[in-house]
Write a structure and sequence with these properties.
This protein has 696 residues and is of the alpha+beta class. The chain is built from 23 helices and ten strands. The chain has helices at 2-34, 37-40, 54-64, 85-101, 132-145, 159-171, 175-193, 200-224, 230-259, 265-292, 300-331, 353-363, 365-380, 401-412, 430-438, 469-481, 490-524, 528-551, 565-593, 598-625, 633-665, 674-677, 685-689; strands at residues 71-78, 111-112, 118-125, 153-157, 349-350, 421-426, 443-452, 455-462, 486-488, 694-695.
Amino acid sequence: MGPGKTTTRERRRAVPWALLGLWVAVLAAVAPFAAKLADVQHDRIVDYLPANADSTQVARIQDRMPGGEATELVLVYHRDGGLTAADRATADRQVAEVAGRHELTGDPAAVPSRDGTTLMYPVSSTEPGQDEDLRDALVDDVRRITHGEGGLGVEVGGPGALNTDAAQVYDSLGGPLLYTTVGVVAVLLILIYRSPFLWLVPLVVAGAADYLSTGVAYGLHETFGTTVSGQSSGVMTILVFGAGTDYALLIVARYREELRRFERPYDAMRAALRGCGPAVLASSGTVAAGLLCLLAADLNSSRGMGPLGTVGVLCALVAMLTLLPAVLVLLGRRVFWPLVPAYGSEPVRRRGLFTAMGTSAGRRPLVVLAGGAVLLGTLALGALNLPGPLKQQDAFVDKPESVAAMETLAAAYPERGTQPLTVITPAGEADATLSAARAQQGVAGAERGRTAEGWTEITVTARDAPQSPGETRTVEALREALDGSYVGGPSAQQIDLEDTNARDRLVVVPIVLLSVLLILVVLLRSLVAPLLLVVAVVAVWGAALGIGGLVFGPLLGFEGTDPGLGLLSFVFLVALGVDYGIFLMHRMREESLAGAEPTAAALTALRTTGAVIASAGLVLAATFAVLTNMGLVQLVELGFVISVGVLLDTFLVRTYLVTSASVALRRRMWWPGRLSREPEPPAPPERQEKAPAAVG
């Protein structure tokens, strides 16, 4: 007996220390790789384009040409009352200085506007190649050289300047995004736990998980060539802290319960992990499966986000199931101070929000369900008010210089395009392609460029403004007429992005729904409950998009909707929304297996998990809301829709409507599983009329 007790006591001490030591070793091992992730992060247009689109082929072929992909700029000189001779001399002098300092593909020629107010100098350079830092340095130097004097306005625009301005926003997805996310999570944890110490534990563990995820993400890139962009790495960080904190909240809440039943923290943690571990595993598995479905997308940015998001979720899972329990056990009960759960004590029982929800769900479940369905359906109608496709010049929250240049050009040159199209054609067919391009009705001009690698580059100027319906028709006509050639450039890229996002929605959405449904069927051993949860998250997605339609244009003034918003918000809301359904349904099934009748099981599950789900939903919504502070409209829209969707799911659908449906369906909820066939014991009248008190 003595040796046995000693062995058990030693194991209780050794296991947490061993896990802590293992984590220190793992973090030390991944440190060299974690530091390299920023070096392989790229935000070139080819990292976001569809894998097989014409515009992607153009960008790839240009990369292989001497000097690599050309950086296209447009220098714009403007004076409202008309340019003076001094203005023209200033422009010529500054453009000559640019040509003298940098290697250009040709001599820049001035293109005056008909009204005499504007001069446009198209500038192209292969000096930066594929190096984004060199591209940004080129743009910055050109902006330093070109400046107005005496009221002369000077702006540097074009695709190269747009990419540089966008890169500055993506750079903010590193440190600032991480710091903001950590700060938001810290504040919420302090409010939730009301402890000066406890909030630090899940936050530090989430930080360790985030560090691990950066090392693993670098390994994925090196091994499989996974695309790493500012958007995907930023979302990975948000998922680590958002999903990881959710798992921590569930584990800590169950651990607090078990500390009242077990004297030793080690035994309490084992019981807690046995109780909520399956739900956490299933939850993370569902999120990972949903994100991996993005591998079926043709869009490079979406396909790269799938593996990186999965890495973030799985690293958070491993950290919360190993490092978090080890740290909590080593710190003991005192980490909960001043609200320490004493062994053998009873929790304070009080009536609260979730008890009130349970009362209404238990008394009038069908009325609650009908009202919720009408509300969600009405909100979803707002999606009809979503702005049209987002144009390049509307992609920034605060207008940068490159967008101002585009607006100046659009006003000064209404009769012609100011953003060239690029045609890549086999070198042997260059003359025929050039003639065919010039013959198109919407083409104002075409010029031959570089020849290399068996391809010739042709620059085409359209008659219509960039991304206008007329220019879109010109791109489509060129692609139809120039068989064997590729048509690219910024406007063609936007067309390909819209078309590919539409294709990806048709392919990815059914795969996500099917994979999530199968996981839920296996976990809950039912068909009805999984179908209910999937229908609920789809309704939440529609309502969140509808609220976006009521906010983006009318309140925020956005001129367009990112083409990828529908797909990405769907994947995240379905995968993450099912999390809370798993937490609730798993506890409901646990109560049913313990012998509780259906109504009591549903209300007890709501009472015991409602506060945890609410806290987790607030944290997850807040972490995605951090994206609304970024400078790109697509990130603001994505963060807004996901945050609103999570809040709807947390406070309306998951804790209220799903509970009402469970009460209404009773044992039919678990059809065709064993729980649906077991006879129901008669419920006392008072249990049907009075909801159980909430546990604080």
